[in-house]
Amino acid sequence: MSSQFQDRQGKPLSLALYMYDSCAYCQRVLAAMRSLGFDIPLRNIRKDPSALAELVQTGGSRQVPCLFVNGQPLYESADIIRYLQTEVRR
Questions:
Q1: I need a labelling partner for 9 at 20 to 30 A (CA). Which of 27, 70, 84, 90 fits?
Q2: Is residue 3 pLDDT above 80, yes or no?
């Protein structure tokens, strides 16, 4: 996971987005990332079995999109977008 990001206090953030291509909510988050200029590592759970295993083990669910923030899952596209817009700095 990348640590090129910081929170509002300047502390490093490790971010990764667990997703798959045909998920409309994932596409919404990806569009927000593009508009913000954020290049967050992607973990495609349909193409990478280890990504699916990590998502289920850590988050307890197969639900995507899921943004891992310092190893903690954040679900729901609107919540992820709001977090990216208000809490994350490069």
A1: 27
A2: no
